[in-house]
Amino acid sequence: MDAGRYHRSRKDIVAEGEHAPTSARLDIWLDVSCLFKTRSDAQKAIRTGKVQVNGQPAKAHRAIHAGDSLVISRQFGRKQTIHVLAVADTHMSKVDA
């Protein structure tokens, strides 16, 4: 086996096109895309019904795909609408998110 293969980061693998995720869990994607500070904050918002996916209440384990539409209820009655352009399951810089 190639020992170097195990020392590459996930970003290297995705950049090489070996494995680009087509879906990700909703709670992980909300955290990775910098919409919530932590995954537990994302889970709390989902659990309290503040996140909808394609017009339906969502659960944390729901799979998110490119093309989905999310509505997040924020403080003071504001609603944030997000259209998923791409899916990532590892953290990235806020500029890339």
Distance between the termini: 35 Å
pLDDT averaged residue by residue: 82
Unreliable runs: 6-17
Structural class: alpha+beta
Report the principal-axis shape.
globular
The largest β sheet comes out as:
4 strands, antiparallel
β-strand number: 6
SSE string: HEHHEEEEE
Strand content is: 15-25%
* Continuous helix count: 3
Q: Radius of gyration, rounded?
A: 15 Å
The largest sheet has its strands arranged as 3-2-5-6
Helix content: 10-25%
Please describe what this structure looks like.
The protein is an alpha+beta fold and 97 residues long. The chain is built from three helices and six strands. β2 and β3 form a beta hairpin. α2 packs across α3. About 12% of the residues have low confidence.
Summarize the structure.
It contains three helices and six strands; from the N terminus they run αβααβββββ. It has helices at residues 10-15, 26-32, 39-47; strands at residues 23-25, 51-53, 56-57, 63-65, 69-73, 79-83. The strands form two sheets. A four-stranded antiparallel beta sheet has the order 3-2-5-6. It has a two-stranded antiparallel ribbon with strand order 1-4.
